[in-house]
Amino acid sequence: MLAALVLLAAGATVLKLHPIPPQHLPYKRLDLDRPIGIATGFQLSALRYDPLLCRGVLDISALQARPIDSRRTGEFCGFLNAVELQRSTIAYSAPVRVTCPMAAALYLWEREVVSPSAERHFGSPVVRIDHLGTYSCRRIGNGPTSLPSQHATANAIDVAGFRLADGRRITLTGGWDGKPAEQAFLRDLRDGACGLFKGVLSPDYNAAHHDHFHLDMGPFGVCR
């Protein structure tokens, strides 16, 4: 009994002197300006159920986003708890209007996955992300009886390529089976996305995704 008390006291002292960073504690609020931790994915998922929490997380970060008025645009389509990115760590080829949790995940992916991977493989930073769209009122695969796509509520983005500061452009179409550095870079991005987004689909998934990453914050966990 005495030995157990001594161990508990020692453990408490260690934690006091060396507290666990909040990104490793699932009950802590997400801080977008901290590195990715073992609890970051869980903290991101919590934003899906609490719009006020999500907006608060964005507001105290370096990410700048403008709220989009909630509105219904179709039978299962519309915008709810959505924002338009105004300023992030990397520019985009077109406006990005996504749900608040998607904006948070994208911000972390840009800074913690895309940027360091580009420097590692190419020695040049990514200055622009090319995307094919976010919102689209449709069902999965455009099937008449399929479930609504996450794009129907702006809860997804399709990323097609990356422009480097030195002028090079890395695309999913040419790079997935392209040069070794391109292959490694794109697979790093896919694997890193799987720890942040709920749904991640790459060219490995099917032919429909041969030219882009599909990233979403929907209810189903998939990493392909």
Summarize the structure.
With 224 residues, this protein is α+β, with helices and mostly antiparallel strands. The chain is 33% helix and 22% strand. The chain is built from six helices and twelve strands.
Structural notes for this entry:
The protein has 224 residues and is of the alpha+beta class. It has one domain: Muramoyl-pentapeptide Carboxypeptidase, domain 2, CATH 3.30.1380. The protein has six helices and twelve strands. The protein has helices at residues 2-17, 40-46, 51-59, 100-122, 172-175, 180-193, and strands at residues 64-68, 71-72, 78-79, 82-87, 91-92, 97-99, 126-133, 156-164, 169-171, 199-201, 213-216, 222-223. The strands form three sheets. Strands 5, 7, 8, 9, 10, 11 and 12 form a seven-stranded mixed beta sheet that branches. A three-stranded antiparallel beta sheet has the order 1-4-6. It has a two-stranded antiparallel ribbon with strand order 2-3. A hairpin with a 5-residue loop joins strand 2 and strand 3. The longest helix has 23 residues, at 100-122. The radius of gyration is 19 Å and the shape is globular. The model is unreliable at 3-15 (pLDDT under 50).
Shape: globular
Q: What's the overall average pLDDT, rounded?
A: 93
Class per helix and strand makeup: alpha+beta
Report low-confidence residues grouped into runs of 5 or more.
3-15
Number of strands: 12
The second-level CATH architecture is 2-Layer Sandwich
